[in-house]
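Hey, weird one. I pasted the Benzoylsuccinyl-CoA thiolase sequence into the form twice and got a warning about non-standard characters only the second time. First submission, copied straight from the form history:
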Amino acid sequence: MPEVTSQQPAIDGWFATDSTTDGAARPHLIGSKCPVCGTYVFPPRENNCPNPGCASDTLESVALSTRGKLWSYTENRYPPPPPYPAADPFEPFAIAAVELADEGIIVLGKVVGGTLAADLKVGMEMELTTMPLFTDDDGVQRIVHAWKVA
């Protein structure tokens, strides 16, 4: 594995990290909101409100809640097939569907390492964080949004 030279989001525009007054990094998801009907969407997009009862073709970029309740979860026990990167050796990981506190939409994401399905329970509070997904051949560590038990 190459030496890590920098960190970059795995997908640009899905989350941002702000610094708090104490210098800690606090990530938040970036979503979209329809200014006409108030519908939220993640991942973000610029047009076509997903509400079938709304004809708006404009969505605004908004910061989404950083906390929510665990709506559902599963555990991935098999490495992804090529060309997708997988840790070697592969370790199982949990995937969480979290209903955001303010928006009511459900966002999927990996759960931080060390937390498996046996550690999770529907309804528990979850908090947004980030984690490395893989390091590419150029030494860039690709970061994704993730969930941790609050």
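That's the output from the first submission. The warning seems to come from a hidden character in my clipboard, not from the data itself. The mean pLDDT is 90.
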